[in-house]
Design goal:
It contains 14 helices and 24 strands. By secondary structure, it is an alpha/beta fold. The N and C termini lie far apart (55 Å).
Length: 473
Amino acid sequence: MTLNLFRIFIKKEVTILYPWIYTRAKEQPDDIALITETERWTWSELYARAHRLASTWATIVTRGDRIALYGPSSAQYIVALHAAQLLELTVVPINTRLTQTEVLRQFKQADVRLVVTDRILDTAIPCRAFSYEKEVPDLLIRHMPKQYVQSMLFTSGTTGHPKAVEQTMLNHFSSATNAARHIGSLPEDRFLIVTPLFHMSGLAIVYRAVIYGVPIILEPHFSPECALHWITTEKITHVSLVSVMLDRLLDAGLRRHALRVVLTGGGPVPLPILTRALDRNIPVMQTYGMTETASQIATLLPEDALRKIGSAGQAIYPTQIRITRHQEIEVKGPTIMKGYFHDEEKTADAFTADGFFKTGDLGRLDADGYLYVLDRRSDLIISGGENIYPAEVESALLSIDGIQEAGVVGRFDAKWGQVPVAFIVSSLDEAIIRTEISQLLAKYKCPVDYIYHSVLPRNANGKLLRKQLKESL
């Protein structure tokens, strides 16, 4: 059965939204909603847990407050996501790979009222335990405004300073319904999540599952063996991966089984991997999207994969994609973010006068309307599906006493796609720099190599010429 709200949306614009878990529990109370290694919950059981947790929070938060979710992917994390919507709270998922310094900075920037976590943080932060096992009074369930900010995920720009992207309930709902139009939605669908819930690729699947009324199978720590187990035993139809995950699954013997959709992001799938998958009739769908667009805005269907090598596919209706005379990709549609939290200037700069979002990526559209991304946003490095922003790494390096100049670029890596490499002007020993930077940045952001120079190339205005650095690799 498909959610009534979903069917209505296909016919006309949504005017009223209710909490999705509330509607789903009423329509499919006994259907399976969530499966993990230790849990197997129905929609009514998941709703009951979310309702109880929301009731315990209700004494300390109010509508519109922001709550940080900081912990590994788990059944409890999904309960918290749904509990937040019941109270009309904004969830702020935090990357667990960040250092504590980075985490606390994001708490402050997002102005969070509550941190939901399973780990010890700065002892200056007051803590209390929550339980959702006891009975609590009923919450008042009401319809919700379309522009309610449901989530805030952090992304970074070329300045190196993280930005909090405000995504509305309508953004997520539109993303789900747009995807269903493009790739279909069937009652027997079953979604496997192996990407982190603090990433859009994982979070979007949680919301799609409750909107479509299909179960999630959650694997918190990706391994090809565990993923294959779920794919074969639970008749998985949908999974989202990055290329390195797909490659490892193919090495482990992945076959089509019940798979109907294998979404891949983080750049085009390398041809050898793509060919292996298609030879096994595995339905790989390459996508293009970003945090600001609430997941995918273009998708390449399997039948076009070899005919349109290197393409990210066609725009997902009703998303509009256009290319400027400077080759920048601009997009418009109901999935585009509300803006950057507490940053009106950057929000205004991100949009054109006629409402198109400036992605900062360079691309082209062919005669058939297929999008080709020619270069990722500015100097963005994508390593194993993780975004690494050179300016952020450079800023951290320059905070180390003894480093006069720093420039960071991406280098091709057969396993991860790209890895960061640092060019520095310094007399410090490399071992000292590695120790210092590991305290400032998550491991995946730390440069794998350091190249010493007496001076770094700059233009007449003093701007670092990263292109020259990259060409020297």
